[in-house]
Amino acid sequence: MRAEEICTHYSEDPSRFAGAVTPPIFQSSLFTECEGNEGDREGRYAYTRVSNPTTEIVENKVAALEQGEAAKCFSSGMGAISAAMMHYLKKDSHVVAVASIYGPAHRFLAEYMKRFGVEVTFVKGTDTEEIEGAIRENTDLIYLESPSTYLFLVQDLSKIAEIAKRHHAATVIDNTYCTPIFQKPLTFGIDMVVHSASKYLGGHSDIIGGVVIGRKEEIDQIAQSERELFGAVMSPFDSWLMLRGIRTLPVRMKQHMVNAMEMAAYFQELPVVKEVIYPWWETHPQYELAKKQMTGASGLMSVVFDLPGEQIKRIVRELEFFHRGPSWGGFESLISPVGADLEQDNETMKKGLVRLHIGLEGADLLKEDFERAVKNVLG
Ligand SMILES: *Cc1c(COP(=O)(O)O)cnc(C)c1O
């Protein structure tokens, strides 16, 4: 099934809801037994922490988009990530994780899970031999995020899935950057996919949400233990907003990429720019690998400026349409001069690096904005 069909019609049945093309928000905490809502756990609604008809429609769509058997929504990306990790980890487990993963996911593994004796080895992720070398007897999980979101380092998904199977370790990937429109990790043998729906899946910067996708048996276990017991379930209203966002996911992602490619070409020619870091750009050191496992890239990129930090920050403050702030994945362009004050490059950051989210304003407007800001600061 094509993504467009999944996003518009799949798992929808207007005849259930008086012909409404948009399903209702089932804003109900509990569901009583009645004709049509009977039986055991499967197929019966009882309580929204366990299942909800609005949320279920989104879950079916995301599972189909990722070519997974099942999906469950959470109240945040971190709710989904911590549930997926807890599913695979036990006391004294060992984890191999990519060093450049989302900050709180890094902290969850490196700091919080310490209290259960969980140990983690962080790897760069670009070298599969380094990953295999880090695996121990008690390695239960290999945790990936490809591409990562500052340096856009890419991991070889099919090779890592093969290594993990050989060593009886599970693989989980954060696929928030690509969305299933540009990358389907399960088709490369990865066991489980997690997303922050607060980014592109929601797409309008109005929800905090997460989702876990994988084999039905494992997703059911997560629903009955990590989600039901920790309780980080998505609200019906957020599910409805996420559903609304997903309707336009394919067109939005296409346009983010078109705009990002235009901006990359613009930055490439800008004399004060030292490097454009975008996985779909020819100069990216892993461009070939990216092409092998992705079908495009989103609106997030980094640009390394060859300017003193003070001047970088002045240019950033001069911009009108790039708002300063974290996060990404919505309609709006954002900028974050995360590497401006750095003295020198390190493993996860470069000196002079500015991260940009290229929104849906149109590349011409965004180029003019930069042109003006650079001129105002540098003359
Ligand atoms: C934002 C983000 C998360 C966390 O999602 P929340 O919804 O904020 O909890 C996880 N991974 C990546 C790559 C993110 O950008």
Mean pLDDT: 97
Question: Strand order of the main beta sheet, please?
Answer: 1-7-6-5-4-2-3
Q: What's the helix count?
A: 13
Largest sheet: 7 strands, mixed
**Proper CATH architecture of the largest domain:** 3-Layer(aba) Sandwich
Counted up, domains total 2
CATH third-level topology of the largest domain = Aspartate Aminotransferase, domain 2
Q: Cofactors and ligands present?
A: pyridoxal-5'-phosphate
Cα gyration radius (Å): 21 Å
The count of β-strands is 12
CATH homology superfamily of the largest domain: Type I PLP-dependent aspartate aminotransferase-like (Major domain)
Oligomeric state, counting identical vs distinct chains: single chain
SSE string, helix = H, strand = E?
HHEHEHEHEHEHEEHHHEHEHEEEH
pLDDT below 50 for ≥5 consecutive residues: which ranges?
none
